[in-house]
Amino acid sequence: MGEDFFKYLPSEIVVNILSRLPTRAAGVCKCVCKPWLGLLATPEFVNPHMSRSVPGLAVETHSNSFEVIEFVDELGLDAEVEHRWDVAFNFKLPFDEPIHSSANGLIFLRGFDHGDLILCNPITRDYIKLPSPRQTTSEDQLFSENFGFGVSGTTGQYKVVRVFVENPLHEEYENDPLPFESQYECQVYTIGTGSWRKVPSGNPHLFCEDLWGVLLNGNLHWMVIDITTGHYLERISCFDLETERFSILTVPPPCGIGSRDCKTPSVLRGCLCVSHITADGEIVIWLMKEYGDEKSWTKEVFVVDVLRGLSDELHVCPIRVFENGDILMEWAGARAFYYSNKTKTLDYDVKFRGDHSYYISTTMYAPGFLSLKNFAMENVSSF
Predict the structure, then answer these.
(1) How many helices, marked H, and strands, marked E, lie in the chain?
(2) 284 has which bridge partners?
(3) Distance in angstroms (rounded) separating the CA atoms of residues 273 and 271
(4) DSSP H/E element including 370
(5) 3-state SS assignment for residue 301
(6) How far is CA 337 from CA 132, 273, 318, 364, in A?
(7) 169, 196, 220, 325: which could form a disulfide with 148 (CB 3.0–4.6 Å)?
(8) Are 101 and 267 spatial neighbours (Cβ–Cβ below 8 Å)?
(9) pLDDT one-digit tens code per residue, 106-129
(10) pTM above threshold 0.90
(11) Contact, 208 vs 214, CB < 8 A?
(12) In Å, what is the CA distance from 108 to each residue of 118, 121, 208, 211, 305?
């Protein structure tokens, strides 16, 4: 075809070709020539490449070092079949803060004990340190704090959401029958604005431990405890990133708080999902087949007698359900295990790390080439 064949192709055809490449191959193309370097930074390339990006599992293999695993075949527990996956690429971050969540190739990191809030893209190797949220009282008065990160499906704005509860002063307890109500607040940081805003927080709820906000359909979802009815009932709190308003979804029964009934939200097969361990030691996974329709909760998987080898941790989250019904799951945010639909047994020896450690840090991650330098009012650094 000649050396100059690509040189004279229309840019839209070049973009169409390059946007179909895997992340690692597309990154190499940035080094081919200056026109391609500039082309791969444009929305015309970034957006279609992101739409084709395959979500993988980012696994911390060593301190601050991650491998992105793409599952290309069904895992199996047959004697002749080993667990199989492909490492699509790897990256290293220069931060001590753990990964909180991700959206469209951007990773949100949140330090414990009021550490830094960081947004970064390991592909473009740029990052932003977000300004600290405004504190209305001293840190000693902070009772709970939960974050979520996501992108609006309408405007494409990226936002960090902070919902927090402050301990009332001692004298406020005596006069307030629901002391959390006046101390329950929500703040939003829109990437590119440089500042936090206070938004209406909706009805007060207690968040179930320090679970991250689950992003789906432009909404963030947290499992919360409804404290307004006089009964401690589980609900899903939804925050619409476009309207910046809260709403509530009911969860499948049992919805009260009891032994091993704490549910964990996630996204599975493109649906909102909750999973929990029952008092009988069984894992139940529910899918909301029609988003927003509380009548569409469907019990998708029922795993019998799984407590053997597990401790008293409550949170079990499905990572992937394969075509043969096998399930890769994460337990307590730190350990992976595998359920065989054929043998109805669990394999507790799933190891991703090179040192064969059981305990891992993982997050679902779809790589992309969106540069944080596109956002005004932000001090962007490189690594």
Answers:
(1) 5, 26
(2) 276, 302
(3) 6
(4) none
(5) strand
(6) 37, 18, 10, 16
(7) 220
(8) no
(9) 999 998 766 789 999 999 999 999
(10) no
(11) no
(12) 6, 9, 20, 14, 36
